[in-house]
Structure formats: structure tokens, C-alpha cells
Design brief:
Layout: H1 2-25, H2 33-47, H3 49-62, H4 69-98, H5 102-116, H6 121-138, H7 141-167
Transmembrane segments: 37-55, 67-90, 142-167
Keywords: Membrane, Transmembrane, Transmembrane helix
Pfam families: DUF4199
């Protein structure tokens, strides 16, 4: 089972990591933030569909078509952890290769947005202080890695729960039997 976790987790991490790298560099600044976020989470969902595939394959090939909820959930969570680690590392590589200063770009966008809304000088000063604290935290690679991991891991938990819930029923999408030739 460890081999399945590593294989499918690596696939999920690479798919989501490459998609995140493309989404943050190619259209950066050309798409509204909400669209970029929706595309990002949609690609995470597609990448983490490997959990469903892994649980189904394990159920059908190794377990004779029957899997209980908890083993299916643990398989999915293992894949989610590996995929999340790969995704977080891909973010670090993307930032390094593209010389991105994500936290400063984000902070400037937040401050500009509040200025456009007509925020008071006190509110802008408070926001600027808050953004400076965020910059200091984000400079720590362990903080940054955990923050990035926590973007994708909850999606993996959700996919794991749904996959385990559906696939514990052996009648849900049963394995195809090879036709008998006479």
C-alpha cells in the first residue's frame, strides 16, 4: 500500500504543482484573483482525483472488490499528504525560478484595494502594519511550506472522505469481469 500512496501521491503533487506553476506565472495579473483561485482549486480537485482511482484500483485488484471505509480513508489521506508535500515544494521551486515576490505583490494589492475603497489613514496604517507582520512570517520557509501545504490538504481530505464513502460499497462502480470465451 505504501507504493500506491507514493505513486499516486507523486502524481497528484506533480499535476497540481505544475498547474499551480503555470497559473501563477503565465496569466499572472491578467485574470481576476477569483478566477485564478477557482482555476487553482479546480486543478487541485482534478489532481486529487488520483485518490479515487487509487482506492478503486486497490479495492478491485488487491482486495477482491471489497474495501472498508477506514482503510480506504487512510489510503486517501496518505496520498493527500504526499501530494501536499510535492505541491508545497513545487511552490518553492516556482517562486525561486520566476523570482516571484508573492507576499509583497499580495500586500501591495491589498493596500491598493483599501486605498481605492477610500480607507482612512489610520486604517491604511493598521493594514500596512499587518502586511509587514505577514511579510516577516512568510520569509520563514517552514511557515511558507506549511501555509502552502494547507491550501491543498483540506481538498485531499474531502476527496478521501468521498472516495472512501462511495467505494466501500462494492456495488458502486464494480470491477469489470473479463468475458469468458467458449
Amino acid at each position: 500500500m505504501l507504493r500506491k500512496i507514493l505513486t499516486y501521491g507523486l502524481a497528484a503533487g506533480l499535476i497540481s504543482g505544475l498547474a499551480m506553476g503555470v497559473l501563477t506565472t503565465v496569466p499572472h495579473g491578467h485574470l481576476p484573483m477569483a478566477v485564478e483561485m477557482a482555476l487553482g482549486y479546480a486543478t487541485m480537485l482534478v489532481a486529487l482525483s488520483t485518490i479515487f482511482l487509487a482506492v478503486k484500483r486497490h479495492r478491485d485488484t488487491a482486495l477482491g472488490g471489497v474495501i472498508r471505509f477506514w482503510p480506504a480513508l487512510f489510503l486517501g489521506l496518505g496520498i493527500s499528504i504526499v501530494g501536499g508535500v510535492i505541491y508545497a515544494l513545487a511552490w518553492e521551486v516556482t517562486q525561486a525560478l520566476n523570482h516571484m515576490d508573492y507576499v509583497n505583490d499580495y500586500a501591495q494589492a491589498m493596500i491598493s484595494q483599501e486605498k481605492a475603497k477610500g480607507a482612512s489613514d489610520e486604517a491604511l496604517a493598521a493594514l500596512t502594519a499587518e502586511m509587514d507582520k505577514m511579510r516577516a512570517k512568510y520569509a520563514n520557509p517552514f511557515y511558507r511550506l506549511s501555509l502552502t501545504f494547507n491550501e491543498i490538504f483540506p481538498v485531499g481530505v474531502l476527496v478521501s472522505l468521498v472516495s472512501a464513502g462511495l467505494l466501500r460499497n462494492s456495488r458502486f462502480w464494480p470491477a469489470r469481469r473479463a468475458p469468458v470465451l467458449a
